[in-house]
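Office hours follow-up: a student asked to see two folded examples consecutively, so here they are.
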Amino acid sequence: MNKRETLLGLAAGQAPDYVPAAFFLHFGPQFHQGQAAVDKHLEFFRYTGMDLVKIQYEQILPPAPPPVRPADWANAARYPPEFFLAPVAVARGLAEAAKREALVIMTVYSPFMWARRWGGEAALTAHLRQDPEAVKPGLEIMTENVIQLVRGCRQAGVDGFYVSTQGGEAHRFGGRGLFEKYVKPTDLAVWAEIGDCAFNVLHVCDYEGPYADLTPFLDYPGHVVNCSLQVGGRALSPLEAAQLFGRPFMGGLERKGVLAAGSPGQIRAAAQAVLAQAPERFMLAADCTVPSETPWGNLKAAIEAAHAWRHA
């Protein structure tokens, strides 16, 4: 099977002939747009031997007056389709260049994450605690923005999306109520837009902090789930994570651990330790985007270990 067939089979319930793998990092600013972005993504994909092309979303939002009161979120920026021409062009270039070799998926940050970018972390959290109904229109505007990007990328030919969610971290709201009522519906609105894509990854992002519980995300769509295995003060195994979500798990290695600083031999050993306790339908990856300075050779070593595992 080729890489496309392998991951489509994984999503459809088949056990692949080998363990697929993929890792992601951010490229320098000179590779955020245009042909330079397309070429750098392709160089990384082909050097590492990874099993899909994940397009990094690097667009910067225009400066805007920060929200001072909860009511200010009603004035959140609404961007027209033309705003997304640059990232959509990168998506089109990669779909045209790599879709015959592998699935091409676009990174999508959640409406909550967009709201953080537009209005700031402190304001968003404080205002949601203070008056969530006043903030709700801003989250809805951000949902419209995300959907505009998604529609453009679908028209450009991507196979699916890597959809990141935040807002449910243990430290943020002191419970699940605000997340469940105000954040989760915006996530699910984006998922409703992409539900018929060939391959979608649900990423529960712990970049801002760990989660006490993954229960709020169990009913999210997504063919594959990617998240940290450190949850509620305990470590899950890849098999436990797959059983919890009822679908293939993608992950197993910590982004700042041996991947970032280990030798190729240490990385192969760490990957093999993960693979030894992984379910049959599994994809080796990190828990999130790895540090940009991570040597590509380290990622290549982990991917080669995954590809060789069933033949060991």
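And the second, which I mentioned at the end of office hours:
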Amino acid sequence: MTLGNDHKRLLDNLKTGVVLLDNNLRLLYLNMAAEALIDISDRKAHQLFIGDIFINAAEDIGEMQTAIQNHSSFTKRKAELKLVHGKSLFVDYTISPFDVDGEKRALLELSSLEHSYRISREESLHSAHTTTKELLRGLAHEIKNPLGGIRGAAQLLAQEIGEGEYTDYTNIIIEEADRLHNLVDRLVGSRKPLDIKDCNIHEVLERVKTLIEAETSGNGIKFIQDYDPSIPSIRADTEQLIQAMLNIARNAMQSLASPNVDHDFGEILLRTRIVRNVTISSKFHRQSARIEIIDNGPGIPEDIIDTIFFPMISGRAEGTGLGLAITNGIINQHKGLMEVDSKPGETSFSVVLPLSK
């Protein structure tokens, strides 16, 4: 059985992983979603036994063989399949036998539970972020009005009393009113439209690295770069993207300065990769760029990790809780996705940005 180009294009547009097997469970074809899920190309997987892909899976392989022999479909929910390189897949799978030209074949459909959970979590975060943003905008309006009155009254008072012993007090009122005004603006986020141009993500990361190294001079933090040179230019606002990545890297730097760090040498890893078949805000993207900033700090406390991108949430007593909220807003403006994964000794912030066609 040979798949035509039309059939391949059709299967490659599916978000579900599809694997074509012969009656001996050897791989004949993988669509693009299956390639991304199993982390192997169709060419390399051709004619491999499925047991060479999924290790220690005797029970699952036995169920598949029984399904082919009995010519009946079999579905398993919440299956854990381990790949040869150590990664585990949590999937629902269905194997459906069929005959073509007198030969037995089977179609294996793989639906990633992690993918479904991520989409659900992303939609929940996006909804909460939108609600919080609208709430903050209303609150900002209510705060700015009296602030403007306080500042104006302080200026009039300063003019009335002239230079004297009370000038310092009126200056403090004006300065603090300005500071609160700026704080509110940062909470709400910029409404300035993005200046979209071709942007080299590695130049952005190198700029961030230079800035952080200047701030951490002599503090024993090592940067490691692991870049994928095949990533093309991204359509983005370079300055905004620098600010977003700088906020994440600065967060990593500050975590490495925590007294809870149990090692003497902090590391920040900057990694880029191309990822395929990604859904962001219900929109499917064939190719995207993933940028990871990983540190070996103490990790994010479990009680705040689900709300870490919300304003005023911080794991540090001296933190304002604005940096990651602002970053998340910038990434959302770029139609991207931001995720975090943390455990003691490793925190990874991932940013996924769609690549142009």
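Two things to take away from it. The mean pLDDT is 82. The domain at 197-354 is CATH 3.30.565.10 (Heat Shock Protein 90).
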